[in-house]
Amino acid sequence: MATEDKFSNKAEELKGRAKEHVGRATDDPDLQAEGRADRMSGTLKQAGEKIKDAFRK
User: Fold this and answer.
1) Long-range contacts of 37-42, Cβ-Cβ distance < 8 Å, separation of 24 or more
2) Is the dihedral of CA 33, 35, 41, 43 positive or negative?
3) Cα 35–40–42 angle (5° rounding)?
4) According to the model, what pLDDT value does residue 5 have?
């Protein structure tokens, strides 16, 4: 389960990066902001998984 969460969180971060780049390329500030939010959400979830892993050991 934890591995699936890690992959899912990384995928969310990468999706956010892609949206952010497309938003920049198309000069769409809304898409750029949405991408930034997705990227940050994925990053925060990854940090949460790292904290959980630290307490499990």
Assistant:
1) 38/12, 38/13, 39/12, 39/13, 40/16, 41/12, 41/16, 42/9, 42/10, 42/11, 42/12, 42/13, 42/14, 42/15, 42/16
2) negative
3) 95
4) 83
- What is the total count of domains within the chain? 1
Which pTM does this prediction carry?
0.80
- Sequence letter at residue 53: D
Q: Tokens for 6?
A: 């890690």
19-41 per-position pLDDT tens digit:
999 999 999 999 999 999 999 99
